[in-house]
Amino acid sequence: PPPNPSAPFKTVQPVLQKLDEVTLDGASCLYTSDAAQVSIPYGMSAYTIEAWVKPDTSGSSTGGIVGWGDYSTARGSNALRLNGWCCAQNYWWGASLGGYAPNGNLADGEWHHLAVTYDGQGEHSMMIDFTLVSRRTDAAPGPAAMTSVTNFCVGKTGSNEYYKGKIRGLRIWKYKMNILGHVSQPSPPLP
Predict the structure, then answer these.
(1) CA 30 to CA 100: how far, in whole Å?
(2) Is the pLDDT score of 159 beyond 80?
(3) Which ranges constitute the DSSP H helices of the chain?
(4) What is the pLDDT of residue 36?
(5) φ and ψ of 85, to 5 deg
(6) DSSP secondary structure string for all residues of 103-136
(7) Rounded mean pLDDT of 164-182?
(8) Parallel, antiparallel, or unpaired: how do β-strands 64-69 and 123-128 relate?
(9) Distance, CA of 174 to CA of 35 (rounded, Å)
(10) Predicted pLDDT of residue 2
């Protein structure tokens, strides 16, 4: 059975965890084979994605943090990316949830915490810097057309949404975690 969604994040093991800081050059894709080795959520599965990011403004303002699935099919993928220097977006290709950073700027040279959850039935939430910035219930729920975890990548979503900057503390759970109850470090986890 799934864990208590209000349990502290540290008590429930993520299916993928990359705590070390990586610097992406705006043309690279990391950990492409990792999805096949773990149970990355897809289709109508519940999930939580969490990462600390520090974008480099010499890269794209739509750079992909992490994504997987078929980007040519509506609701066939799951991607977390920047959506301008002000915002983040979790999209399924054809449907998305976005939110503005509380300070209005994800490219201010500081680390920013991003987290998104989906309950597998339609409830979708986004938190930036430990503030709930967006929530919805989707009548046509989730990435329903996603049938695999193909194209898994950290640092790119879609065919060319490359991320330039630093990522640390990337975690993916196969459960909807309580992002509002998430008590994490006030700064990115140390390697």
Answers:
(1) 26
(2) yes
(3) 34-37
(4) 83
(5) -70, -15
(6) TS-TTSSS-EEEEEEE-SSSEEEEEETTEEEEEE
(7) 85
(8) unpaired
(9) 12
(10) 44
Backbone angles phi, psi at 28, to 5 degrees: -115, 155
Nearest of 74, 66, 64, 56 to residue 32 by alpha carbon: 66
Q: Supply 124's token pair.
A: 């979708």
Number of DSSP helices (H) and strands (E) in the chain, helices first: 1, 14
Cα–Cα–Cα angle for 20, 92, 85, rounded to 5 degrees:
60
Q: What tokens appear for 128 in the block?
A: 């930036």
pTM for the structure as a whole: 0.90
User: Residues 110-127: pLDDT tens digits?
Assistant: 999 999 999 998 899 999
Helix (H, G, I), strand (E, B) or coil at 98: strand
Give residue-wise pLDDT tens across range 10-59. 567 899 999 899 999 999 999 999 888 889 999 999 999 999 999 999 99
Q: Using alpha carbons, select from 122, 123, 124, 132 the residue that is nearest to residue 100.
A: 132
Q: Tell the residue number behind the tokens 């390697």, with chain if given.
A: 191
